[in-house]
Specification:
It is a single chain. This protein is an all-alpha fold. The protein contains 23 helices and no strands.
């Protein structure tokens, strides 16, 4: 069950892990690449040492670093808990929850980060309009209620949820969110009643178990709280907040080397491409395809397969939703190329150019792919078209020179390199290419 309260701001980690070195080891110029490599090798302490250096800011690199910082803390917390080092485990779980409160996969995390950039008031206006058109849409209703709640209008949030429950009395997410709102006002009895109804409708709703545990704890019923937390953690073993609550609740009085009295379920492999979250990323890409550029600017790392699989799912979904958007198809082609799937990348780039034959960026992308797949004649044709449409850029002339040279058209290559150097007198690669031809 996806937590409907996933649209929160994810703050950079500001506390240092006492178990990792204060200073970076020398010789690691790129913390992103080194951190991702360490994470892939399950060396989580070293991963933290690198990734926490770059985890602040709004860049895609920083955003991904925060995600993997959270994942590293989650795994270190589990290790410490199993060792009976409960204080250290709790601190790691706390750090993990600060980065990714619900422990969601990468697509969900990125979607939540993107959603958090918007203003609640502005979002509420748009969501209210959508809800008028589709009053049966549970997601729109819950998001509108959340925006109102975050904006300080809890009364309106409650009315929106109760209106929804009047039409859909067994909808678990509406029951859960209304219960959460009431529990925040210390109205525990009606909150518990709603949460029990939620679990009758959806026994796998981990967050309902967590909220029941909190309500039970507030009423002094510790055994019930523990039972609900254990159930929640079995359902969502990747959720650091649940693990933190369990570790704190069960570690009281335990000795440093004691066996934990409650066994935590081991984290499972994350669903990196959560379909709902991918859809939200797809909408962001369709609205601004430069969103993909930020990912493509990342240095190559051992995490590329995971990261770009998420991006590919999102941009492919965007292309399916908007089949006439040439730029979305071009971006899809670029992601496929990053993953080494060149034949598919060519097909997708050809689609972009078919949609818009005068699309200079698409023509250049397609020419580059033709060059990479030994189709220089086709690449030359596309670059000549791009030049005819106004792509009088030094790197385009240089690329055309490379293709002419590969086809044995030395005079044409020389002219192309000369033109590149005329447009940019500091174009070292073009000067070197001319020197090679002269020799």
């Amino acid at each position: 069950m996806t937590d409907i309260l996933d649209d929160v701001t994810y703050y950079p980690n500001t506390q240092r892990d006492p178990e990792k070195p204060m200073h970076m080891p020398p010789g690691h110029a790129d913390d992103y690449e080194a951190g991702m490599a360490s994470f892939s090798e399950r060396d989580y302490r070293t991963a933290l040492a690198h990734l926490e250096q770059i985890a602040e800011g709004a860049s895609i690199k920083a955003t991904l670093a925060r995600f993997y910082v959270g994942q590293s803390h989650m795994r270190l917390g589990m290790e410490r808990y199993l060792q009976g080092r409960f204080a250290a485990a709790a601190e790691h779980f706390r750090q993990a929850a600060a980065q990714n409160p619900a422990g969601g996969g990468l697509s969900r995390y990125l979607a939540a980060c993107h959603a958090a950039l918007g203003r609640n008031e502005a979002a509420a206006v748009e969501l209210a309009r959508l809800l008028d058109v589709h009053p049966e849409d549970v997601e729109t209703r819950t998001r509108l209620a959340l925006c109102c709640w975050k904006s300080g209008d809890s009364g309106r949030a409650e009315r929106i949820l109760r209106d929804g429950l009047a039409a859909m009395p067994e909808e678990p997410n509406l029951l859960y969110l209304l219960a959460t709102l009431l529990a925040s006002q210390e109205a525990y009895a009606p909150a518990i009643e709603l949460l029990e109804s939620c679990l009758r409708a959806d026994a796998g709703h981990a967050r309902a178990h967590v909220r029941l545990a909190q309500c039970s704890g507030a009423q002094g019923r510790a055994p019930e709280a523990l039972a609900h937390l254990q159930t929640a953690q079995r359902i969502e073993p990747n959720d650091p907040d649940i693990a933190l609550q369990l570790s704190v609740l069960t570690s009281g009085g335990q000795q440093a080397a004691a066996k934990p009295c409650v066994e935590l379920a081991s984290p499972r492999v994350l669903d990196l491409c959560d379909k709902h979250a991918v859809g939200r990323l797809a909408d962001a890409i369709a609205a601004d395809s430069e969103f993909v550029d930020a990912f493509l600017s990342l240095p190559t790392s051992s995490a590329d397969e995971d990261v770009f699989r998420v991006v590919l799912e999102a941009v492919t979904t965007a292309a399916e939703r908007h089949p006439d958007y040439a730029d979305v198809h071009r971006q899809c082609s670029r992601v496929l190329a990053r993953l080494g799937r060149l034949d598919e990348a060519v097909t997708t780039a050809e689609r972009a150019v078919t949609l818009n034959p005068h699309y200079i960026a698409g023509l250049i992308q397609l020419a580059q792919l033709y060059q990479a797949t030994d189709r220089n004649t086709d690449g030359i044709e596309r670059l000549e078209q791009a030049l005819a449409y106004g792509a009088n850029y030094p790197d385009v002339h240089y690329l055309l020179g490379q293709m002419y040279q590969a086809e044995g058209r030395t005079d044409d290559a020389r002219s192309a390199y000369t033109r590149a150097l005329t447009l940019n007198g500091n174009f070292t690669a073009a000067r070197d290419a001319l020197s090679v031809l002269a020799a």
